[in-house]
Amino acid sequence: MQLQFLGATGTVTGSKYLVRHAGRQLLVDCGLFQGYKQLRLRNWAPLPVQPAGIDAVVLTHAHIDHSGYLPRLVKQGFTGPIFCTAATADLCHILLPDSGGLLEEEADYDNRHHTSKHEPALPLYTREDAVRCLRQLRPMDWQQDWEPLPGLRARLGRAGHMPGAAFVRLDDGASSLLFSGDLGRPDDMVLRAPEPPPAADFLVVESTYGDRQHPQADVLEELSAVINRTSARGGTLVIPAFAVGRAQSLLYAIHLLKQQKRIHQLPVFLNSPMAAEALQVYHRHHEELRLGGPQCEAIREAAEVVRTPDESRALNARKGPMVIIAGSGMATGGRVVHHLKQFAPERRNTILLAGFQAGGTRGAALAAGAPTIRIHGEEVPVRAEVARIDALSAHADADEIEAWLRAMPAPPKRVFVTHGEPTAADALRARIEHKLHWDAEVPEYLQTVELA
User: Which end of the chain is least crowded, N or C, by CB within 10 Å?
Assistant: First the structure.
């Protein structure tokens, strides 16, 4: 086997790994780059490999930084199967058309308001492109061997990061290669813990939180405090949240706080039809959750779902106190951008960051204390309180990644640390070398390695 890194190097986004075997090519993950402009421009640049020359794709999970390039890949000539778990297939049916629709909306907004350098502004792909690529999804069972390429066996194990999230093991009889995908947490409030990893000669491991530990904090205590102090000011709490994963965890936490009467009575809005749809997938694949049917139903009842653009705009005219949960999680796009534009300038309001914020995103700028953020070509002042809750993260931290690695039956020959900002990736590399005494490295973009 030969492995080439087409993404997730020096960044947490754009996951793409090309595996060459016996003259054929397999792509593991097919994600969009997000964050810094020079990364986003890679989404528009030609792939280093012809899409028509790729024989198959295997997805670890459905988040856009792992699946969001699929519509463009198919549009450019990829015709092969896209293997994934059943829950990932279900979520892709929600996430990818929504992604295409948002890209069309953003291009339309730029054209109407002349906020783009391009005339006309075009979407990277459309909703129709996304729907077309879904026909190539091939759901596979957990812990079942199959051959994505002739002579190359694959198997999926539960990674715990979101419903359907998997680690992927490839084996050609001579050597084996394991992709961690995004690893979940052993004590997640909603999802089950990741399964132990199998043995493998080579390992590609994520490092999103490779340089830190999640705070040992009481999530409910932190969330109730920020809700109550914002409510006491008569303000609006805006929470950028990924539509799958973070939104559901937040809703469950708010349900518990309401149940325990620990927060003021105030309206809660889920401004993400996609997040509401995803709850159906949570119900359908409840075996991956710690929660039973009644708790899943409680999540659905914790907030009022905002469905139409008109209803979304009406929220901006509404007076607080209230809570608005909206995508996207790093404020790179989606409806939350319009809410930030409206509510960030007011001191009584709060913006709550409840997950990782990749460099170059509006979320990262807010986390760093930026006095303004750029939205639709304007500098919007940030006078609202900016708060953070990292304990809600669905990513394993450095200690949890190390514990998962220690569960491998035998040390791999070589470890490639990816899917992290440079500091985080190098910190995890150093930890693996010094504490586990394994050979580890942080690969470069487009680097190719022989797996022998």
Answer: C
